[in-house]
Design a protein that fits this description.
449 residues; Rossmann fold; Glu/Leu/Phe/Val/Trp_DH; Glutamate dehydrogenase; 18 helices; single chain; 3 domains; Glutamate Dehydrogenase, Chain A, domain 3; binds NADPH dihydro-nicotinamide-adenine-dinucleotide phosphate; five-stranded mixed sheet
């Protein structure tokens, strides 16, 4: 696809010039701009107010040094980031990622996507994202704690329950959120909902752990129903990753009647033709932070293969990528289609390259883009913020029902926006348009700043 509108072309050219060294960020901006032509043409006030120029420029970008002491007593230095991208509709909100691949470009692409995702949830949350190039693999628990404390020692001056509320992302789960929250409380001497994904005993929300994976399946089921009159029942599903999102997507897809046949980590993937035994995956990944290879040693009839992108060579009806960005390239997309896959909904952020998306579009694949399909996590984070403000907790069922309704509404608002702007049935264009208009109108209303 191309950027068709002259204003959008001009702003994108400016981004290429300024941020030419940020490929992931430019990829995310381009994907959105390719779908916004009709919206910008129908709303000349956006160009008059410089909305697109402002939309791609973070309100604030913080980059900081994180020094911590390892178990040998040696000082280690990592880089920390927090991108406070857009606060037009609420406090900045978005996760923290700890992974050696984290760069300013990665955090900016995630923060940019987060603006639209948070808008789609209908909850009052702006867009932000952060993280570090710290690699928790092979680190002791005490090292992870010291790193988290050092990270929060700097981050705490930039965040707050009404300013910016981070959450988890890759390698930032319950353990890390605990250490981060503890350090914030120690320094600021206040117990507030400054982070989401907290433990249930200290301000967390029921269903937050499950939210992204469950939400992905609610979204996929709703899209299947509305666009094809179909369901998960009897379908074969390939899922990548074996972290938070993958595990709970597998759990819900199985509950909805599908057979999930794969799981993976960054080393390789497992194929279980009899259907993944999720209790074994949970024991390996949540129980002792092991490698997915162990599954094949424990479950007869399953296979392990080195190389994590091989997961997309397994025949399936539905693919749910739940690991990382750009994990499905053109070749993998073609293989999926050749093997009969007709649905790709994204649990991970930006897991499909632009070339892969073109393959889906050329082959009538039902494509649910990340910013809509994986919005369940931040939606329940938003609900966690509400519960913290009320100082009460909803039941699992109550929260899960709200999550289910939000995911159904995201499909509905995406389809409605797509139809209004001449892209009937296009969930990607619809998500970009519906998410964008709310933020853009708020920016116009609040004046230039
Ligand atoms: P976890 O850290 O719990 O799990 C990540 C999984 O993906 C692991 O299996 C990991 O394998 C694999 N993985 C990570 N990086 C790579 C890589 N570069 N190459 C191959 N495999 C990789 O993270 P989450 O499950 O929370 O996040 C997964 C995706 O979902 C991310 O894209 C995240 O941004 C997105 N997401 C998460 C939300 C949440 O609520 N947690 C909300 C919305 C989106 P290994 O253990 O070997 O590293």
């Amino acid at each position: 696809m191309a950027i068709t509108n002259e204003y959008l072309q001009r702003v994108y050219a400016q981004a290429e010039k300024r941020d030419g060294d940020q490929p992931e960020f430019l990829q995310a901006v381009r994907e959105v701009f390719e779908t916004l032509g009709p919206v910008v043409e129908a709303n000349p006030q956006y160009e008059a107010n410089g909305i697109l120029e402002r939309f791609i420029e973070p309100e604030r970008a913080v980059k900081f040094r994180v020094c911590w002491v390892d178990d040998e007593g040696k000082v280690q230095v990592n880089r920390g980031y927090r991108i406070q991208f857009n606060s037009a509709i609420g406090p900045y909100k978005g996760g923290l990622r700890f992974h050696p691949t984290v760069t300013e470009s990665v955090v900016k692409f995630l923060g940019f996507e987060q603006i639209l995702k948070n808008s789609l949830t209908t909850l009052p949350m702006g867009g932000g994202k952060g993280g570090s190039d710290f690699d928790p693999k092979g680190k002791s628990d005490a090292e992870v704690m010291r790193f988290c404390q050092a990270f929060m020692t700097e981050l705490q001056r930039h965040i707050g329950q009404f300013t910016d509320v981070p959450a988890g992302d890759i390698n930032v789960g319950a353990r890390e959120i605990g250490y981060l929250f503890g350090q914030y409380k120690r320094i600021r001497d206040e117990f507030t909902g400054v982070l989401t994904g907290k433990g249930l005993e200290w301000g967390g929300s029921l269903a937050r752990t499950e939210a992204t994976g469950y939400g992905l399946c609610y979204y996929t089921a709703e899209a299947l129903d509305k666009l094809r009159g179909d369901s998960f029942e009897g379908k074969t599903v390939a899922i990548s990753g074996s972290g938070n999102v993958a595990i709970f997507a597998t759990e819900k897809a199985q509950a909805l009647g599908a057979k999930v046949v794969t799981a993976s980590d960054s080393n390789g993937y497992i194929y279980d033709p009899n259907g993944i035994q999720l209790d074994v995956v949970k024991d390996i990944k949540l129980g002792h932070r092991g490698r997915i290879k162990e599954y094949a040693d424990r479950v007869p009839g399953s296979e392990y293969h080195e190389g994590f992108t091989g997961v997309w060579t397994v025949p399936c009806d539905i693919a749910l990528p739940c690991a990382t960005q750009n994990e499905i390239d053109e070749e993998s997309a073609k293989t999926l289609v050749k093997n009969g896959c007709t649905v790709v909904c994204e649990g991970a952020n930006m897991p499909s390259t632009p070339e892969a998306i073109a393959v889906y579009q050329a082959n009538g694949v039902l494509y649910g883009p990340a910013k809509a399909a994986n919005a369940g996590g931040v939606a329940v984070s938003g609900l966690e913020m509400s519960q913290n403000s009320y100082r009460l907790s909803w039941t699992f069922e109550e929260t899960d029902e709200k999550l289910h309704d939000i995911m159904k509404d995201i499909v509905a608002s995406s389809l409605e926006a797509a139809e209004k702007y001449g892209k009937k049935g296009d969930l990607m264009a619809g998500a970009n348009i519906a998410g964008f208009i709310k933020v853009a109108d708020s920016m116009v209303a609040q004046g230039a700043y």
